[in-house]
Amino acid sequence: MRVCVIGTGYVGLVTGACLAHIGHDVICVDNNEEKVKLMKSGQSPIFEPGLSEIMQSAIQSGKIEFTTDIAAGVAHGEILFIAVGTPPLPTGESDTRYVEAVARGIGVNLNGGYKVIVNKSTVPIGSGDWVRMIVLDGIAERQKTLVPAGGVLSDEKLPEIAAQFDVVSNPEFLREGSAVYDTFNPDRIVLGGNSQRAIALMQELYAPIVERQYANDKSLPAVPILTTDLSSAEMIKYAANAFLATKISFINEVANICDRVGADVTQVAKGIGLDSRIGNKFLQAGIGWGGSCFPKDVAALIHTADDYGYEAQIMKAAVSVNERQRLIALEKLQQVLKILKGKTVGLLGLTFKPDTDDLRDAPALNLIEQLNRLGAKVKAYDPIVSQTGLRHGLSGVLVETDAERLADGCDALVLVTEWQQFSTLDYVKMAQLMSHPVIIDGRNFLDPETMVRAGFQYVGVGR
Ligand code: NAI
Questions:
Q1: Which of 3, 228, 241, 370 could form a disulfide with 297 if both were Cys (CB 3.0 to 4.6 A apart)?
Q2: Which residues catalyse the reaction (predicted)?
């Protein structure tokens, strides 16, 4: 099928590359010229395991192209994905200006033939109908330009074109760090819309994935497809993220109580996670959730509820527990080192989770800010940030090139991100290089006994 993906960030590029990999003809559109140039040369502007490989093979087989020209993308695609960012506004609501620009661009460039316009961006509930309206505006705008100066505007063609597209909500659930894997092995596919024709085309598009042709375990039953109305599909995305964020805040709260009563939250999480009604995922206590989705999506849902006169109390509590949790490492540093002014603190990891280069709303950023405020010097080592030199959003921190340089002269280390390679560092040597061998394990990732044997004072979260 002919597909156009507009916006090639974590979601758009992964979607485009994976759809090309399974045989569709994909054009990816982005308005960032540098990104497009990079992608044309087969390089991924983001770090995501496996992505460069499938991009390069799709380029070689002619299944994917990259352009800044939305008109070319719209002309090509029978399915048009909107996958641009929806960052938070200071009020918590979602900034939909990029979605609006793309919807208008689609309308202005819509040519003949039936098209499915797919909202893959996480958008406020009601956006499906709103996108339809903007597309129609775009069509009307173009019609005006077709009218000769001083001529009479004819809207004869408008209903005809309007009838030739439908909007579908197809929220994305991929996780950064395993985005390619998740696209080929989804738990479910959600399709919201009221056009049978559009839903049928979307089912055809995803058929190879639904049939597990590209899954790691091909013996699994077909991927469930849930078809709903537009608003329910939009709500599913927000509710899923709000639930996951709440689950983490819940276990963090349990960890804080464990700290006080002398229980071990890792044992507690195992014990409750074995209950199939609870499940063992998202029960790792630590320094809180962050990243580009949870904070903004929970804030947006709270804002939507407020707009409709309802106070989302559980979600608000999940956010406030998280705000406090993001500073738990600071509290623990103060308990051990007392005065932080003049001390050097080394952060192991900066990104909000491993296997990604995304620093958006990472807990490390709060920690750096607060440590600086208290007069501490902050250094950091992160496998991807140190290697690629990505510094977006980083200030007040010296980024070191390896873990031993990081440890050198530090009064304490904080493990912020559970990168796999942090399990095999030479902690004996690192302890020797430090002024005070203290480690705050913000993810309960290391074995306390091993760390003590290596010479560290070990402090976990709730253990
Ligand atoms: P991103 O910020 O990484 O990428 C957005 C891309 O859109 C950028 O490359 C930007 O240059 C491009 N863009 C912006 N305006 C444009 C325009 N007018 N025309 C063409 N391109 C334009 O965003 P990300 O993280 O991929 O998120 C996209 C959407 O997907 C958001 O709504 C997000 O909430 C949602 N989402 C993100 C997930 C994630 O893990 N990052 C997971 C699930 C959903």
A1: 241
A2: 293
